[in-house]
UniProtKB/TrEMBL annotation:
Origin superkingdom: Eukaryota
Organism of derivation: Galeopterus variegatus
Signal peptide: 1-21
Domain TM7S3/TM198-like: residue ranges: 299-484
Keywords: Membrane, Signal, Transmembrane, Transmembrane helix
Identification of the protein by name: Transmembrane 7 superfamily member 3
Compartments where located: Membrane
Length: 504
């Protein structure tokens, strides 16, 4: 019995040792979190139990630290002291603080808390930089913190905008910081450059574990450059703000790397993420995108489109109604949205009515006058609109020249008109292609009302450009992952089946 008791005690002791050495999860003690440099750590914050984060054994060649903490959608607060004031703390889902080290200092601490009723799962990391590295947010004049390394994200239906504070040159421990705006030469912070990066999370994955895992790929300079896509490079003369098209329900992580080309050094800001939607909204939240009225509208539209995809060429008048519905509905929705303040559901009902009138008008024009060229011109313009939208869905659409509305719409219209002109001598092929491609794409739009797919943004970006003048400044990058590839393959299959049906 004595030997058995010793074995049990030995096993229990070994388990405690393993649990205590797992630095990435749990608390080392209530109210105190031990961190090590450059290592991520998972932990939960409770409203009733604020925590203190502590970092020991800081090397003497480290000049400043960036401590950052991330959660999915519940806010957490990080502060230099137990007194949480606007100029010494930050609150949000992605927040960080810069700690300028004093001479001989080898330890520092931060205070963490949450006001959310539910416990908040977080991941945090302290990162070190030397005196040659630029200081993110070191010349902040817009936000509350004296030095603000955070990337701030704002979004609406049209665009997602990130903002950040300008950086400053690095300096040694105990030295005075370089002045921010005394001079604008190569010896000042005006030589710094800012590289903006974008990283897409897996499609339709809203889990907390996936987000916190992928955020770790966007915290340090080497990982950001290896995993994310660089969108634009800004100079110190540019506005520290960049806009992107909003991707409802699609997780995106943004970060900025400030680079000193003279010293060939760089530092990363605190990454920020968004899903361009709310997890707590009662209707149209991240888990259930879109309104009920939108789902009904596009589901009925897709059923008609699916019929047109396979049988539209044989049922000529039904196809004309479908084309007329698209033609009139699209322009009518833009018109009433820009000129009125009607609620969305009312606008959608009026669009359905106007689209039906447009479809009936096109059918009546064919039935009464029998003008084939006019009808086929409408058919060709709808196909041309989609082809032009696809062209600007590529990196071509992000060229600076197309931020001018005049250049964009003239180029867009020319591409759209080119399609019916090219196919005017072979109307049968034009009609078959329109039925197959437009009919199948209507199914894509309906599927997007239930879960995210990037292909819907082919036409959605054009609609946003027509509705909102500020959208011209937005980068329209989207992920092309599993759902997009599957739907693209399905569209090709449906279109080919439609062509075979017509030929048969």
């Amino acid at each position: 019995m004595g030997l058995l008791r010793l074995l049990v005690l030995a096993v229990l002791a070994s388990e405690r040792g393993v649990a205590g050495g797992a630095e990435t999860v749990g608390n080392s003690s209530r109210g105190l979190l031990e961190f090590s440099m450059g290592n991520f750590r998972y932990f939960k914050l409770n409203r009733l139990f604020p925590e203190e984060a502590i970092l020991r054994h800081i090397s003497s060649n480290v000049t400043f630290l960036i401590f950052q903490i991330h959660s999915q959608y519940q806010n957490t607060t990080i502060s230099f002291s137990k007194t949480f004031l606007p100029n010494n703390s930050g609150t949000g889902t992605d927040r960080g603080l810069v700690f300028i080290l004093r001479p001989e200092q080898s330890m520092c601490s931060w205070h963490l808390e949450t006001l959310d009723a539910e416990p908040v799962q977080n991941v945090a990391i302290p990162l070190s930089y030397s005196e040659r590295d630029p200081i993110p947010g070191g010349c902040n004049l817009e936000f509350d913190l004296d030095i603000d390394p955070n990337v701030y994200v704002e979004y609406n239906f049209f665009e997602t905008t990130i903002k950040f504070a300008p950086a400053n040159l690095g300096y040694a421990r105990g030295a005075d910081p370089p002045p921010c705006d005394v001079e604008t030469g190569q010896d000042s912070r005006w030589r710094l450059q800012y590289e903006v990066y974008q990283y897409f999370l897996p499609e339709n994955d809203l889990t907390e574990e996936v987000l916190l895992k992928h955020l770790q790929r966007m915290a340090e300079v080497p990982q950001v450059k290896a995993n994310a896509v660089q969108v634009v490079t800004l100079t110190a003369n540019d506005k520290t703000s960049v806009s992107f098209s909003s991707l409802w329900g699609q997780g995106v992580i943004y970060n900025v790397i400030v680079r000193d080309p003279f010293l060939n050094t760089s530092a990363a800001y605190v990454p920020a993420h968004t899903y361009a939607c709310s997890f707590k909204a009662m209707e149209g939240n991240c888990a259930s995108p879109g309104r009920v009225s939108t789902k009904v509208f596009f589901t009925l539209f897709a059923l008609l489109g699916l019929f047109i995809c396979f049988f539209g060429h044989r049922f000529w008048k039904t196809e004309l109604f479908f084309i007329g519905f698209i033609f009139m509905g699209f322009f009518f929705y833009i018109l009433i949205t820009r000129l009125t303040t009607l609620k969305y559901d009312v606008r959608l009902i009026l669009t359905a009515v106007a689209g039906s009138i447009g479809g009936i008008f096109l059918v009546a024009a064919w039935w009464r006058f029998g003008i084939l060229l006019f009808c086929m011109l409408c058919v060709g313009l709808v196909l041309g609109f989609l082809f032009s939208s696809v062209a600007f869905f590529t990196p071509l659409g992000n060229l600076m020249i197309f931020r001018d509305d005049g250049v964009f719409w003239v180029t867009f219209s020319c591409i759209a008109i080119l399609i019916p002109v090219v196919f005017m001598s072979c109307l049968r092929i034009l009609n078959i292609l329109t039925c197959g491609i437009i009919g199948s794409y209507s199914v894509v739009l309906a599927i997007d009302r239930y879960f995210y797919t990037s292909l819907s943004h082919i036409t959605l970006n054009v609609l946003r450009r027509a509705l909102n003048t500020d959208f011209r400044r937005a980068f329209t990058n989207v992920p092309f992952q599993t759902n997009g590839k599957t739907l693209d393959a399905k569209n090709q299959s449906d279109s080919q089946m439609g062509v075979l049906t017509y030929q048969g």
